[in-house]
Amino acid sequence: MDISIIFKIAAVGIIITIICQVLKKSDRDDIATIVSLVGLIIVLTVVITMISDLFSQIRQLFDMF
User: Which domain holds residue 26?
Assistant: First the structure.
């Protein structure tokens, strides 16, 4: 695991927050909600792939012994 993943997740969060704030100021609350959900889905897919990689590494570790 690399620290760059944490920075990427933080960058996605900052960008989504800025977009949502701009959309809310222009009275587009429904689109802001959709954008925030899309950001959440993006981050969750990154985290889920990291967790699946962790489980596959653990599985390989116990197959060695």
Answer: 3-64
